[in-house]
Amino acid sequence: MPDYDLVVVGSGFAGSAAALSFLETAEKAGRSGRVALIESGKNGTWPGASRWAKPFLALDRDNKLLRGRAGRVEWSLSSLVEYWRRLEDETPNTVKFMEDHGVKLIHHDEEDAALDFEEQHFAYTVGGGKEIVDFFLSHVANHENADVLWDHEAVNLTLDKNGERVNGIVACKPDGALRSITADTVALACGGFEGNPEMLTQYLGEDAADLPVIARGLRYNRGAGIRMAMEVGAGTTGQLGMVHAELVDTRAERYHSAIWGQNYGIVVNEDSERFRDEGEDYIFGASESLAYETWRRQNQKSYFITDKTVMDRFEGSWVYETINQPPEQSDTIGGLAGKLGLDPARLEATVGEFNAACGPGGWDPVKMDGKKTSGITPPKSNWANPIAEAPFSGFPMTAHVSFTFGGLKVDADGRVLSANEAPIPGLFAAGEITGHFHHKHPPATSVLRASTFGRIIGANAAKRLPEKAESTV
Ligand SMILES: Cc1cc2nc3c(=O)[nH]c(=O)nc-3n(C[C@H](O)[C@H](O)[C@H](O)COP(=O)(O)OP(=O)(O)OC[C@H]3O[C@@H](n4cnc5c(N)ncnc54)[C@H](O)[C@@H]3O)c2cc1C
Question: Cα 356 to the chain's mean position, in Å?
Answer without folding.
Answer: 38
